[in-house]
UniProtKB/TrEMBL annotation:
Recorded family membership: Belongs to the class-III pyridoxal-phosphate-dependent aminotransferase family.
Designated name of the protein: Aminotransferase class III-fold pyridoxal phosphate-dependent enzyme
Source organism per UniProt: Acetobacter musti
Top-level taxon of origin: Bacteria
UniProt lineage: Bacteria, Pseudomonadati, Pseudomonadota, Alphaproteobacteria, Acetobacterales
PANTHER family reported for this sequence: AMINOTRANSFERASE, AMINOTRANSFERASE CLASS-III
CDD domains cross-referenced by the UniProt entry: OAT_like
Keywords from the named record: Aminotransferase, Pyridoxal phosphate, Transferase
Cofactor(s) listed: pyridoxal 5'-phosphate
Xref: Gene3D superfamilies: Aspartate Aminotransferase, domain 1, Type I PLP-dependent aspartate aminotransferase-like (Major domain)
Listed GO MF terms: transaminase activity
Length: 459
């Protein structure tokens, strides 16, 4: 419990229970229990309205608060900017937008343009629109198909749900636009090809089969997460990315990497793709860009792509006919500039590599203790533990048991996650992504809570 808890937040809890429709939540339980309403955060710690303290191993529930809670310098930077100029959009820019773009691109050799919006979904949808417009202008409308991968997620709007590799998230909301085609996942633990050939080659060949079946001339882009997040924390096999990049070059397909989760340090490099020596054509990012201190997302691309939109001025398609109202808020880039400074000045990429390795080691020790842990996988401070009832058959642990394990950690004051209503029968991966400031004792506390929870749950 936080000491000196001064306020009575019962009114907020009652108002939340009566009026707020929570994301991803089944509300029946709130007929008999109170929802959690968070009040305060500092570092990796959170306090709710009932005064409970939590160690947040998820960076705000969904991999977002990379620099941790309670950063006064970000709040100060945002305040200073808001009183000077809060907003301008349409056909002009703002000073923090320009400054952040330049600082961001210094971390991204080969890229030169940043398009602002305010959510991961929107950033991804901008790419889809750009690809479709390139197809319309330069390929007679024939090269507009977009490939996405089983298990990957790119957002919540109908456009990006058309590219959703997590069936349960999309099933109620169709019909979807045409021209989105799924390719197989790259989770070696669940490979289904029945060979022992290097899986980095097999998984890329499976993509090539789809390209050939659809016709390379019809495909504009391939959209992938560098490490799949909600679909099971899938770290691609050795060689995969090099092969995927080669396919894109061979068939003239633009490579779009969705860094909404991995971007801005999560895996110990600025971007997930930078672990793999590849050079995409589009990179999208959102969550860690301003660590949740303000809403901001970016669609980043190359000069070669940008140039394709500079047609003759009298051509009706001579520019990208798109706008994002809140892409003109200055709070986002102002927060993002300070967020980048913190990561640099506090050496948080190095900390992520070091603490990520430690977290991985501790999870491997846990795997030796508990046969239910089929595989641990991750990079930086981004880890998953896939739970199975039998290591040979790899039968997934039931969703009910998964919820008990997550709930057991929560009772001990540690917030961890699980793959969430994404793949039918496969919501069996525990997810961990503490803020990039995590220290050894935080990791010990997280792993210890999982250990206790695994001991207590009857599987
Ligand atoms: N891409 C990925 C990989 C994500 O995990 C998410 C959100 N969890 C999104 C896109 C969508 O971002 P947003 O919720 O900000 O629209």
């Amino acid at each position: 419990m936080q000491t000196n808890w001064p306020e009575n937040w019962d009114i907020a809890v009652a108002a939340d229970r009566a009026h707020v429709w929570h994301h991803m939540s089944q509300h029946k339980i709130y007929e008999t229990t109170n929802p959690t309403v968070m009040v305060e955060g500092k570092g990796l710690r959170l306090w709710d309205a009932a005064g409970n303290e939590y160690l947040d191993a998820l960076s705000g529930g969904v991999w977002t608060v990379n620099v941790g809670y309670g950063r006064e310098s970000i709040a100060d930077a945002v305040r200073e900017q808001l009183v000077k100029l809060n907003y301008f959009a349409g056909s002009g820019g703002t000073v923090p937008g320009a400054v952040f773009a330049q600082k961001l691109l210094e971390k991204m050799p080969g890229f030169s343009r940043v398009y602002y919006s305010n959510s991961g979904s929107e950033a991804n949808e901008k790419v889809f629109k750009m690809v479709r417009q390139i197809s319309a202008q330069h390929h007679g409308g024939r090269k507009g198909k977009i490939l996405f991968r089983d298990r990957d997620y790119h957002g919540t709007t109908i456009g990006v749900l058309a590219a959703c590799g997590q069936a349960q998230r999309a099933e109620a909301y169709g019909p979807y636009p045409d021209g989105f085609v799924e390719v197989p996942h790259c989770l070696e633990y669940r490979r289904a090809d029945g060979t022992d050939a290097p899986f980095g080659e097999v998984a890329a060949r499976q993509i090539e089969e789809v390209i050939l079946r659809e016709g390379p001339d019809t495909i504009g882009a391939l959209c992938l997460e560098p490490i799949t997040a909600g679909g099971g924390v899938v770290v691609p096999p050795e060689g995969y990315w090099k092969n995927v990049q080669a396919l894109c070059r061979k068939y003239d397909i633009l490579l779009h990497i969705d860094e909404v989760v991995c971007g801005i340090g999560r895996t110990g490099t600025w971007f997930g793709y930078q672990n793999y020596g590849i050079q995409p054509d589009f990179v999208t990012m959102a969550k860690g860009v301003a660590s949740g201190y303000a809403a901001i997302s970016c669609t980043v691309t190359t000069e070669a792509v940008f140039e394709k939109f500079k047609m003759a001025p009298d051509d009706p398609m001579s520019f990208f006919r798109d706008i994002s109202t809140f892409g003109g808020c200055t709070a986002g880039p102002a927060a993002a500039i300070e967020n980048l400074r913190i990561i640099e000045d506090e050496g948080l990429l190095g900390n992520t590599v070091e603490m990520g390795a430690y977290l991985g080691e501790q999870l491997s020790i846990l795997q030796d203790e508990f046969p239910v842990i089929g595989q641990v996988r991750g990079k930086g401070l981004f880890w998953g533990a896939e739970l199975v009832t039998d290591r040979t058959t790899k039968e997934p642990v039931s969703e009910v048991s998964m919820k008990e394990i997550v709930g057991g950690c929560r009772k001990q004051g540690v917030l961890i996650g699980m793959t969430n209503r994404s793949l039918p029968g496969f919501n069996n991966t525990l997810c961990l992504s503490p803020a990039l400031i995590a220290r050894r004792d935080d990791i010990d506390e997280i792993v210890s809570a999982i250990r206790t929870s695994l001991r207590d749950v009857r599987l």
